[in-house]
Write a structure and sequence with these properties.
The protein has 352 residues and is mainly alpha-helical. The protein has 15 helices and 6 strands. The protein folds into 3 domains: 48 residues; 88 residues, Tyrosine recombinase, N-terminal domain (DNA polymerase, domain 1), CATH 1.10.150; 129 residues, Orthogonal Bundle (hpI Integrase, Chain A), CATH 1.10.443. The longest helix is centred in the middle third of the chain and has 20 residues.
Length: 352
């Protein structure tokens, strides 16, 4: 019925009907993303078969129902991390169930507010839901599915800003000390691997899943840089590779492990196999308690710690975003508040 056509980076739907004049008609899909283009092509083919869309008629986007837009969105975003998709499904499927299935253009600000109000959400949960709704409706506008962004006209009360929990250098030292003490009391191989593991985590900001999938081919100690690879067996959250510079403590942690074959995993458990993420997380919590650290601290707090130390050291937020692999600068902005003394120094230098 139609096929996908790409020209100068943009995608088009090319329809063919020898009874029409001209026999071929090309319709812009308004995207440079192939997955989104294929999803839009399938949607147009359905509308064409139902008589709701005629490529040869004067250009007018066929009306799209909310459920259709949600389906196209998930087809285009299928590469995203499973946890991210689960949250989007919770929010968007919940919205469809709450408001029914109106045309996308008929969704009103009051519908969004009513949906959020019907959920038993605390401030953080409401902010998380609204962030996903904004991302969805803005995506719809970029894809030409909607003329405006309904969430831009929604005034949602913002909850108090919650700062991530992170460790001071003294607290991190206590954590390492607790692990080292345990290694001396038990079979050292059972826990000794955790010291370089958490050290690399805190000095690179790698996520737990990225650490367990790290291979020696990705680590260049001479140039002091590693590459987080987006592999089928270990997907990155952004689904992209990224390069991370290695500070001295991270280099020494890698050296303490002992280099293996290029395709060998950097970190292996006591049995020589791949480190289990759940086991690593539980081991971290065990030594967190032994070190007397706050209950709010968990393994991901090491990533927050890396960001806060970078900001405290004067590293720009843009550079922090690159190192940690965040998709948006807005995510990194919360780390700026983790270093109030740095902000005070800057204000004092400028105004004091």
């Amino acid at each position: 019925m139609a096929r996908l056509h790409r020209s100068k980076g943009s995608y088009y739907a090319r329809f063919h009907d020898k009874t029409k004049s001209p026999a071929r008609k090309t319709v812009p899909l308004r995207t440079r993303d192939e997955a989104a283009a294929r999803a839009a092509l399938r949607r147009l083919e359905v509308h064409y078969a139902e008589g709701r869309f005629d490529p040869w008629a004067p250009p007018e986007a066929p009306p799209t129902r909310l459920s259709e837009a949600v389906a196209v969105f998930f087809e285009a975003k299928a590469h995203r991390a499973p946890a991210t998709l689960r949250l989007y499904h919770t929010v968007l499927d919940g919205l469809v169930a709450h408001v029914g299935d109106p045309l996308l253009r008929d969704v009103r600000p009051r519908d969004v507010l009513a949906f959020l109000g019907a959920r038993d959400l605390n401030d953080t949960g409401r902010d998380a839901y609204f962030t996903r709704l904004k991302a969805f409706f803005r995506w719809c506008r970029r894809q030409g599915l909607a003329d405006d962004v309904v969430t831009d006209r929604v005034d949602v009360p913002r909850g108090p800003q919650v700062f991530p929990h992170w460790l001071t250098r003294d607290e991190f030292g206590r954590l390492v000390g607790a692990i080292r003490s345990a290694a001396g009391e038990a079979n050292e191989g059972e826990v000794a691997w955790l010291i370089p593991f958490v050290t690399v985590a805190v000095y690179t900001g790698l996520r737990l899943g990225e650490l367990v999938g790290l291979r020696w081919a990705d680590v260049d100690l001479e140039s002091r840089r590693l590459v987080v690879r987006n592999r089928a067996a270990a997907r990155t959250k952004s689904r992209r590779d990224r390069s991370v510079p290695l500070a001295g403590p991270a280099v020494r942690a890698f050296e303490s492990v002992g280099r293996g074959d290029r395709e060998a995993l950097v970190f292996v458990g006591a049995g020589g196999g791949r480190v289990n993420k759940e086991y690593a997380s539980k081991a971290f919590l065990r030594y967190r308690r032994a070190a007397g650290l706050a209950e709010e601290i968990h393994f991901h707090s090491l990533r927050h710690t890396c960001a806060s130390w970078l900001v405290q050291g004067g590293v720009s937020l843009v550079r922090v975003k690159e190192v940690l692999g965040h998709a948006s600068i807005q995510t990194v902005m919360r780390y700026a508040h983790l270093a109030p003394s740095t902000a005070l120094d800057e204000v004092e230098r400028a105004l004091g």
